[in-house]
Amino acid sequence: MRKLFVLVLALAFVLGVASLAPAANKAVQKSGSHRMLGEVVSVDPASYTLTIKETVKGGEAKEVTFNIDEKGKVTVAGKPGKFEDVKPGDSVTVRYTEKDGNKIAQDLHVAKPAAAKAASK
Fold first, then answer.
1. Lowest-confidence segment of 19-23, 34-38, 65-69, 93-97 by average pLDDT
2. Chain segment 61-88, per-residue pLDDT in tens
3. How far apart are CA 109 and CA 83, in angstroms?
4. Among residues 71, 54, 75, 76, which one has the least CA distance to residue 63?
5. Is it true that domain 34-120 has CATH number 2.40.50.320?
6. Pick from 54, 63, 60: nearest CA to 35
7. Measured distance CA(89)–CA(119) in Å, rounded
8. Beta bridge partners of 96
9. Region for 48 from its dihedrals, namely left if φ exceeds 0, alpha if ψ lies in -120 to 50, beta otherwise
10. CA gap 112, 83 in Å, rounded
């Protein structure tokens, strides 16, 4: 009877540990996603690329180029938009992953379009 109890307890432990593996795998996949905030420097709709200027610690500016995922989402001022709506001067948050040394943007969130900024001044 004691051997049966130990066997059942060991089986429950193995099943418990095995059920944690998918959750750990999901956490690893999510951590592959990054965010960057910056100002749009250039947009190339033909090659589906976007370059933004990010201000890093110390006030130094760094330009970063992203390839845009064709299935990616674009949001302009809280509303659904298109990649063609993104203009130089826009303040944008980019959610991206890195693959083969390239930054692939999945989501672009334009806080306030550049034209709206100029009109409000």
1. 19-23
2. 899 999 998 888 999 988 999 998 999 9
3. 10
4. 54
5. yes
6. 54
7. 13
8. 34, 105
9. left
10. 15
